[in-house]
Amino acid sequence: MLALELLFILVVVYLLECAVWVPPQATGVRRRLFGGARLLRARQPTARYQRAVLWGQVWPPLFSAIPTERLPFAVTVERLTLIDGRELDRAAAARASAEGTRLRVGRAQLVLCSRRLAGRCAAFLRRWAGADQSARVEAIGELLDARFDLAETRQAFAEHRRRSWALRTIACVQLLLLFAGAYLLIATRWRVYWLPVLAALGALWVLIFVLFAFARRSLAAALRPDWSYLLLVGLSPISALRAHDLLARESISDRHPLTAALALGASSQAIAEPARRFLVDAHLLRHAASETLRTWGATLAERISELVGRHGLDVERLLEPPERETESVIGYCPRCLSQYQSGQWCSELACNETYLLPLDVRVDQTSPVVPG
Ligand SMILES: [Zn+2]
């Protein structure tokens, strides 16, 4: 009985190792078991908890959940605004720095989904702050080009796969041996073979550690998993099973979530709903009080439309209002598509008081509200 309890604890510890802890705004991208890829929403254990979780594939082939997210700021040639509306000056941007997954800019300290994204944001902000007007235009263009460059993202992901396939393959064998072996040794008469099973598990563990150490060393410093992870993989055989996740986390996490999903092979059908949400959010930014956010919203809407348009999605159809449910409906929420018979705002917490639109108006047809 004690042995079965131990097996249960082993399963629980392993499931925790499959989790990637990210800030709540992150979106995960994961390959599907039978081809393609999907976007995953980060789940918060409770609404107050400042961290959310993404799950990697629990069983072989152990696909990683790659964390991605929107940029945490809006930027134009003249101004910089955090996505929550706080305006920042050039002096603050010039001192932007990244420490792990934290981005420091002015008094703000933002926790992002990966070290790679934090590093890229800090480097961009310093460049933007120190450049003249034409160089700032160029810097913004390059930042967005990199976020939406599908060919380059595919290449970067192929490079990540090349570095981690052996690690992941051995982890699959290790996983099967660990759980099937543990069951056979606990519950059947095969328990006499405990020594060879244990020896094989030990040998695979050492192999994973060596492969991880080499893969980590060959990566550029900005992409290298922290040395503490090396210690973790060396000390815990269960952590070693997810060593490839630690490499995946930094692989393409600075790209737009839709670019990352397409690079992993997502079909246009699989990205249709997430694309609609990103587009709606970009169009809603065009109504923000800050001029920077309004300009940024228009730029993002254009970039996203271009990306998904090239993959067979009709942007206008994507943003079509829902079918009227009853005659008394006066409007709908463009974010969650709920229909309302009265009121001005959507009452869903996640929609954050989104203005309702009449049922014959698409969100991209609304004119930006310019405060008078
Ligand atoms: Zn809503």
Main sheet characteristics: 3 strands, antiparallel
**Beta-strand percent range:** 5-15%
Shape: globular
Low-confidence stretches: none
Q: How many extended strands?
A: 13
From the N-terminal CA to the C-terminal CA, the straight-line distance is 73 Å
Rg calculated over all Cα atoms: 24 Å
The DSSP helix count reads 13
Structural category: mainly alpha
Provide the list of bound ligands, each named once. zinc ion
Q: If you average the pLDDT, what whole number results?
A: 92
Instruction: Please give the order of strands in the largest beta sheet.
Output: 3-2-5
Order of helices and strands: HEEEEEEEEHEEEHHHHHHHHHHHEE
**Level of helix content?**
40-55%
Description:
The protein is mainly α and 372 residues long. It contains 13 helices and 13 strands. It has a three-stranded antiparallel sheet. Helix 11 (268-285) packs antiparallel against helix 12. The chain is globular and about 75 Å long. The mean pLDDT is 92. Residues 333, 335-336, 338, 346, 348, 351, 354 line the site of zinc ion. The site of zinc ion (ZN) has 8 residues, from loops.
SSE topology sketch:
Elements: H1 2-17, E1 19-22, E2 27-31, E3 37-41, E4 52-55, E5 66-68, E6 73-75, E7 80-82, E8 87-88, H2 90-94, E9 97-99, E10 102-105, E11 108-111, H3 115-130, H4 133-148, H5 150-187, H6 194-218, H7 227-235, H8 237-240, H9 243-248, H10 257-263, H11 268-285, H12 291-309, H13 315-318, E12 331-332, E13 339-340
Helix pairs in contact: 1-5, 3-4, 5-6, 5-10, 11-12
The structure holds zinc ion (ZN).
